[in-house]
Design a protein that fits this description.
Largest sheet: 5 strands, parallel
Number of domains: 1
CATH topology: Rossmann fold
Strand content: 15-25%
Number of helices: 8
CATH superfamily: P-loop containing nucleotide triphosphate hydrolases
Helix content: 40-55%
Shape: globular
Strand order of the largest sheet: 2-7-1-8-9
CATH architecture: 3-Layer(aba) Sandwich
CATH class: Alpha Beta
Structural class: alpha/beta
Distance between the termini: 19 Å
Amino acid sequence: MNKRKPLLLIVSSPSGAGKTTLCHKLLAEFENVRFSISHTTRPPRPNEADGTDYHFVDDDLFDKMVDDDLFIEWAHVHGNRYGTAHAEIRSATLEGCDLIFDVDYQGARQIKGQYPEAIGVFVLPPSIGELKKRLSSRGTETPESLDRRFKAALNEIEHNDEFDYLLVNDDVDLAYDSLRAILLAARIRRPRVDHLARKLLDS
């Protein structure tokens, strides 16, 4: 029996644009959508569980996975390594689920390089002023780290032209309506469902 091919939805944004909130709303509404769980070499935080938030691995295992070409994409981020394994897509195929990838523009580029059918969505903040406000409101940043995050955010925004959709997160409910519409429209793109027309013609 042929398994349903998962829809690959890449959602990227600068830090502070609110993509995590939007993605969790999507997961809450659609049972057959799940996050692609990344591998990372960083240690788990107190509220994180292995296999749920990340696959936590040591440097030796990560190196072996890189050498064995098991990752779709991987990168150094803030002194640690993160990677997306091909096994995530195989697992989603067996489960009949669509996959959300929460990666930066470099990860998105690598995923689309190997899976051109993947859909890329870039979430924008409503303004630079609002972006600065959201970053500083966390209260966990030093002036130096805040400046680094802001510069990194601007660099992310510069690569928005590598995505299929741009979504401005000014009002979270309206932004979610747009993300939801992208998912639903992508599911019925002709290349994904042309077998339905062939079935009619062959009957």
